[in-house]
Amino acid sequence: MSSSPTPDTARPATKRVRSDHDHSKASTKASETTRENGHSDHPDSKESNHEDVDWLKEAPFFMGKSREGWTTKWRESCWCGKTAFVYDEDPLQVKICHCEDCQRLHGAPFQQAAVFHKKNVRLDSGPEFISFLSAHGEVHPISSTPSPLPRKISCKACGSPLMDEGKNMIMAFPPCFEFARTHKEVNKSREKGEEISGAGEGRKQSQEDGNGGEKKIGLPDAFKPSSHIFYERRLFDIKDGLVKWRGHKEESEKMGEEEK
Ligand SMILES: [Zn+2]
Ligand SMILES: [Zn+2]
């Protein structure tokens, strides 16, 4: 299996097929909206349009900054593909949060968060669809310009949450990373008789795979959670043998997997 070389410039996001459902209608609608608004996905136009926007020049965006010395290791993109970030390191830690805020904001029973330093993140798409939500103390409605930290960054074209941004660190959401193979991709490889690397088999994640790079089934080791936090607020028990904290990690007591 060969992986394409990592481009050293920002490139327009591409639509990925994430499941067997027909999502084509939604993505067509999104691209029509883009055209109507006069935005372009062309890489040349997007940087020149946003040259004067200060927040885009700073972490975790670094738009227009030289990529000398940068090697993309991981790529994260939203469901519609219009907003993407790249990472040049593995996450520092990965945990699962069961708090009610995460449940509501993600519409999911829990949130999986991979912690990175901001310096290891860059925007890899146009900024047109970035939106911010701050809900610390006072709630600031979702906005196209940065609201106070900490804030959540999502794609306003499709609504996918992409990261929580703090002062120095960000927490990204592993389900949005492009390492996961879709069922279609797996089936195609099987038809071609290619070897499928997957969850049970060593999972040797390539160090040089940018742009989603080498595709695997399941999470690469670097993205496997090490603990659960706010476990007492869980919607159901998770019997995975990982450490369960009642509240914040190392600031609360540990819990049993079935303990209330
Ligand atoms: Zn999107
Ligand atoms: Zn939470």
What does it look like?
This protein is an alpha+beta fold and 260 residues long. The protein has a domain at 24-89 and 120-167 and 182-197 and 206-217. The protein contains 5 helices and 12 strands. The chain has helices spanning 24-36, 43-49, 54-57, 100-106, 183-191, and strands at 74-77, 84-87, 93-97, 111-117, 121-123, 130-134, 140-143, 151-155, 161-165, 169-172, 227-229, 243-244. The strands form 2 sheets. The protein has a 9-stranded mixed β-sheet with strand order 7-6-8-9-10-4-3-11-12. The chain has a 3-stranded antiparallel β-sheet with strand order 1-2-5, with no helix packed on it. The longest helix is centred in the N-terminal third of the chain and has 13 residues, at 24-36. It starts with 23 loop residues before the first helix and ends in a 16-residue tail after the last strand. One zinc ion is lined by residues 97, 99, 101-102, 111, 230.
Summarize it:
The protein is α+β, with helices and mostly antiparallel strands and 260 residues long.
Provide the fold topology.
Elements lengths: L23 H13 L6 H7 L4 H4 L16 E4 L6 E4 L5 E5 L2 H7 L4 E7 L3 E3 L6 E5 L5 E4 L7 E5 L5 E5 L3 E4 L10 H9 L35 E3 L13 E2 L16
Bound molecules: zinc ion (ZN) (2 copies).
The site of one zinc ion has 10 residues, from loops.
Organism: Kwoniella shandongensis
Family: Belongs to the Gfa family.
Keywords: Lyase, Metal-binding, Zinc
Q: How would you sum up the major sheet?
A: 9 strands, mixed
Report the end-to-end length measured between terminal Cα atoms: 47 Å
Q: Give the amount of beta strand, in percent.
A: 15-25%
Which stretches of 5+ consecutive residues score pLDDT under 50?
1-47, 197-213
What is the gyration radius calculated from CA atoms? Answer: 19 Å
Bound molecules: zinc ion
